[in-house]
Design goal:
This protein is α/β, with parallel strands linked by helices. It has 2 domains: 34 residues; 158 residues, 3-Layer(aba) Sandwich (Rossmann fold), CATH 3.40.50.300. The protein has 8 helices and 6 strands, in the order H-E-H-E-H-E-H-H-E-H-H-E-H-E. A 6-stranded parallel β-sheet has the order 3-2-4-5-1-6, with helices on both faces. Helix 3 links the parallel strand 2 and strand 3. The longest helix has 26 residues. The protein is globular.
Length: 207
């Protein structure tokens, strides 16, 4: 790094002053952030990573000793890495894979609706159980998109969740009403995906 010792000293002082102002600004920003409560979180969008992000939060919750509930509305018989890992914490995690694949696989609307109903009944039991600290409703957005569950019923259950419970909903095409109810919404944007180059789903990446 060039420059004279005096220039170096001046640069250090300028940097220290800049960091001091940033610390003070952040302290002012955080001063009134005192509320602590359960959040309704939605991961949506066409990009990859919605469920992946949710299961990253699941690992955090487990690390903090929280009880975790997972209901998978689409994934059923698929062997996924996240399910294999979570099943290693039987005293802390309850995971229910209750789907039978995407609707174009089953081609049976009545059966899809019945599966969605059974999965949501399980989800409501978890949401009402005060022992859970976090509940993940994986791909719930998909069944709402196809009207397999009454939207008003789902929103009512989410609104009535215990005060300290975090609920994470994943899946593309989140309904606007759910986005409006949520505390945190992240939209995954598709920029580039190997599938378009002929690369199939791979262990550790997609499942």
């Amino acid at each position: 790094m060039g420059g004279t010792p005096k220039q170096h000293d001046e640069a250090e002082r300028a940097h220290a002053e800049k960091m001091r102002r940033r610390r003070e600004a952040r302290a002012r920003l955080m001063a009134d952030k005192t509320e602590e409560r359960g959040l309704l979180i939605v991961h949506t969008g066409a990009g990859k990573g919605k469920s992946t992000a949710a299961f990253g939060m699941a690992l955090r919750a487990i690390g903090h000793g929280m009880k975790l509930g997972v209901v998978q509305f689409v994934k059923g018989a698929w062997a996924t890495g996240e399910r294999t890992v979570l099943e290693r914490f039987p005293g802390q995690v309850v995971i229910k894979a209750m789907g039978e694949g995407f609707t174009w696989n089953t081609a049976d609307r009545a059966r899809d609706v019945a599966c969605a109903r059974a999965a949501f009944d399980e989800a409501r039991r978890m949401i009402a159980d005060p022992s859970f600290g976090m509940v993940i409703l994986d791909e719930l957005n998909i069944v709402l998109r196809y009207d397999y569950l009454p939207l008003d019923e789902v929103l009512a259950a989410l609104s009535a969740r215990p005060e300290g419970l975090h609920v994470i909903v994943t899946g593309r095409n989140a309904r606007p009403e759910l986005i409006g109810l949520a505390d945190l919404v992240t939209e995954m944007t598709l920029v580039k995906h190997p599938f378009k180059s002929g690369v199939k789903a791979q262990k550790g990446i997609e499942f």
